[in-house]
Structure prediction request, 650 residues.
Amino acid sequence: MSAATPISLSPNDPVIDVRNLHTRFGLNVVHDDISLSVHPGEIFALVGGSGCGKSTLLRTILLLQQPASGSIRVFGREVLGLNDEQALPMRRRWGVMFERGALFSALTVTENVSMVLREHTALSADLIAEVAALKIALTGLPPDAGNKYPSELSGGMRKRAALARAIALDPELLFLDEPTAGLDPLSASGIDELVQSLRDALGLTIMLVTHDLDLLWRVADRVAVLGEGHILGMGTMTELSQMDHPIIREYFYGPRGRAASVQAGEASKTWKKK
Amino acid sequence: MKRATISDQGTARLVIETDRAFCSGVWTTRGIAPLEQQLELAAWPDSEELLFDCSALSALDTTGAWLLHRTIRTLEQRGRRVTITGLRPEFSALMQLIASSAMASKPPPQVPPNFVTRVGLQAWHGLQGLHDMLAFIGETAIILLRSLIQPRRIRWRPILHNLQSAGFEALPIVGLLSFLMGLVIAYQGADQLQRFGANVFIADLVGLSMLRELSPLMTAIIVAGRSGSAYAAQIGTMKVTEEIDALRTIGVGPTELLVLPKLLALVIALPLLTIYADITGILGGMIMANSKLDVGFDVFLDRLGDAVSLSSFLTGIGKAPVFAAIIALVGCYQGFKVTGSADSVGRQTTVSVVQSIFLVILADALFSIAFNWLKI
Prediction:
């Protein structure tokens, strides 16, 4: 199958399909036989304690890191072993928001967003500027933020700008690494709503890595808990919260976990009213 | 909600008839560029009412939706009434989202400052830079004095570390360049001296030019490029990652920890490097004199002792600590001037090298004038 051939995907095929993934750093085993799949239109979350390999898994799927063995299929196509040229069609179909934004510091926010469009489309400069402004507005940034440099933005605004860049090409698949880390509760709940509305409006599939239990309760359709190199549990938040594994229980029934779940119960009532 | 999950095949199409326009195909970022060009040239019918039939639209993303929104808005501004039909519910939800975001999306125009403002700003920034630099030198001087009064406060470990990185590790490059310089001066002078039969004066030529001027200047320029830039980049990066702020909150003065050791180490290292450069430079000249002018090593050294007075040697060495202070202060100062981004680190590093080399040469010129005046 050549790089240019579009891959037909029936609506129920998983967008991401990870099979028997093993990753090692030296003697340190990070992933020991991990398998998971993400379905179209789903918001899938990876959780787990610090250093459990969530970010490594994300980086492996994004082709930034090579695993020891296993298979990863994205949009139905094996991605491991692809070179940069072969990976390009994939990379144009996904958007990534890094934990600390990773905005290009020499460019303004608008330039950060329009750069992606300029690189990958043949649109006119005017349309690119308009679409960039639109993406910036979609993420809830004020219009004047577009002319600012990343260093002039607050943490929350930087995250939004990074999100604007991630959705610049209207990706089918969006990766979010710690979308709410380091944000105040107000900004964080803004991101919650943003993620949800993006999925609903654009029909995105979203894979996110997070520690934020509120975010999990509010937006995640399915969650995988990583620990000790394995997937300890996978399912909806409600399913997970009934599992018996000690690490999962600790994760969800620590003092913060309980608070978030109570809050989520109340929130979902008000959500339904809306 | 379902966009085409099939990788987009087919293109975006728009067909205009007397009172309606048919949108069809895949209106997504990737394939929409031809349509955009077509829209610019589109001849819209004169009828007052227009119907957009979107029932054959198979995919729509934000770029496509924006293009549709923009087209319709432009038509409405020209006084036409536009109705859309056949839009799938998920597409019309997207259109609504676009319309509501579009209200907020116009960025305010940026007015570039006019000529007078630019000149004024430049002058103001220049003055501010001068003020900041003086303040920085003053602060460093105060902390230096305090450290000299209480030698316990001096941090020896970073000083030794800097001595190694800025001094010892510079030996090969300084030695090599100075050796070549001595070689070249002797080579260039050989012809002229031979013409007058003044072969032995090659020792005067090489000795005086290297010891008084070239060794100190060249060593300082190499060190400015090697270490001055490293100082600026290190402190600049620490500023970006808020390490400088962290130091302040811990109660450790960044000047005391970062600037002073570099300054002291360089003030010690640069004179030593200069002496080393003197030696290798003269060695280069000696080898060239031996091979081109038949002036043996013993004759050369004998003549060198007569030609070069102690004061010549000392004026050369005496300049080195001043050059060292310039390089260390400029490098650190530019590092502290970094603001927030990787781009700024690069810019200030460049500025630090250019500025310290400029100031070193300027200081050298002032030294020449002063020595001339004092008849040294």
Notes: The interface with chain A takes residues 1-3, 5-9, 28-30, 32-33, 36-37, 61-63, 66-67, 70, 90, 93-94, 97-98, 101-102, 104-108, 110, 339-344 of chain B (CB under 8 Å). The two ends of chain B are 87 Å apart (CA to CA). DSSP finds twelve helices and four strands in chain B. Chain B has two domains: 12-105, 126-374.
